[in-house]
Backbone:
């Protein structure tokens, strides 16, 4: 009887968490469902990649991976953590030049054409629906606190994974944001967290539209999506093209290497700056996260001039050493004759400048 009571309690708790815990996200509107069902990228109840992208591992390989994760890597985190550069709120408000500031992982503050944009602003302590249990951020402080940020013209998301779309961040940030721009199927999460549906745009791959003088395009990526149980691949993942009259930017989101990079380069390149996923990789899931050498090649495929490697420097979500992504990317860029910037977290990079950060600050 005691075992039955315990089992029943676990089932009830699981039901309550899955249905009422807000961090897991929200439901799609009827209009979103209608648009998903007619999307060319949706098949048999799931969004699909352009090319086959298997992610399942055999039981033996899974058990081996679990053992490696339990054992851990002593170099997976920087000893003593990271101290981010402080970003002056007055500088953020008043500087009008095209520039970008990296917050670690894939979170970026972009100034372009006089507008202030945030890309994948995950500012939480841990990329987990239960932050107390998840991997912790390397730095104890952000370059600037959410409360100090100016009004944000738009927040752009690449997909709905916890290390990109964070419940706590949205709750704190939403009052400052004029527009949210997200892949198809993601809006329901924001609505559940209190964002007005009227300021959310959802887009499918190859949607091109204007936003306050900019041309934006939702472009393909090779990845997957999902929060909680049962939601895998029911929302879209994407990369983004951001164009003004003077500046062309590509934001890769999360992606394995694939032919979509050359497609994007042919249609929208060349780019003055690319923000390229480089981190949390492993040979076992190379289809959804590029190895650093592939990251540099993808930058060349989209016809990028200067690359900033992202998706590293904040959390340990894979087995590699924490600085391995940037070290390998720098080496590959040198071999291929490609320009790469390596700003510190919180260091602002002027887009189009002749000089850009290239110190080995992680050493």
Residues:
């Amino acid at each position: 009887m005691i075992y039955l009571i315990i089992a029943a309690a676990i089932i009830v708790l699981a039901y309550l968490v899955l249905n009422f815990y807000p961090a897991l996200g929200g439901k799609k509107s009827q209009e979103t469902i209608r648009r998903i069902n007619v999307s060319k990228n949706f098949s048999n109840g799931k969004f699909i990649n352009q090319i086959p992208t298997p992610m399942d591992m055999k039981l033996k390989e899974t058990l081996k991976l679990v053992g490696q994760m339990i054992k851990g890597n002593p170099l997976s985190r920087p000893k003593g953590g990271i101290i981010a550069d402080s970003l002056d709120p007055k500088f953020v408000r008043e500087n009008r030049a095209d520039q970008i500031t990296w917050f670690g992982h894939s979170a970026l503050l972009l100034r372009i054409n006089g507008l202030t944009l945030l890309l994948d602003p995950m500012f939480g302590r841990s990329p987990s629906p239960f932050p107390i249990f998840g991997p912790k951020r390397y730095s104890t402080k952000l370059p600037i606190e959410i409360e100090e940020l100016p009004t944000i013209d738009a927040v752009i998301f690449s997909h709905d994974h916890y290390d990109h779309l964070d419940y706590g961040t949205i709750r704190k940030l939403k009052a400052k944001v004029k527009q949210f721009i997200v892949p198809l199927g993601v809006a329901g999460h924001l609505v559940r967290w209190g964002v007005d549906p009227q300021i959310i745009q959802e887009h499918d791959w190859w949607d091109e539209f204007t936003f306050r003088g900019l041309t934006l395009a939702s472009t393909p990526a090779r990845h997957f999506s999902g929060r909680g149980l049962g939601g895998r691949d029911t929302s879209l993942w994407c990369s983004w093209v951001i164009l003004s009259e003077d500046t062309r930017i590509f934001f890769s989101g999360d992606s394995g290497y694939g032919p979509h990079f050359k497609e994007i380069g042919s249609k929208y390149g060349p780019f003055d700056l690319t923000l390229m996923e480089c981190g949390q990789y492993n040979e076992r899931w190379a289809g959804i996260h590029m190895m650093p050498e592939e990251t540099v090649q993808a930058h060349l495929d989209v016809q990028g001039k200067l690359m900033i490697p992202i998706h590293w420097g904040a959390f340990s979500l894979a087995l590699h050493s924490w600085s391995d992504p940037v070290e390998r990317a720098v080496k590959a860029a040198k071999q291929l004759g490609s320009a790469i910037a390596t700003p510190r977290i919180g260091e602002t990079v002027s887009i189009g400048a002749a000089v850009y950060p290239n110190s080995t600050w992680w050493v």
In short: The CA atoms of residues 50 and 103 lie 30 Å apart. The chain has one domain: 82-350. The domain at 82-350 is CATH 3.60.15.10 (Metallo-beta-lactamase; Chain A). The two ends are 58 Å apart (CA to CA).
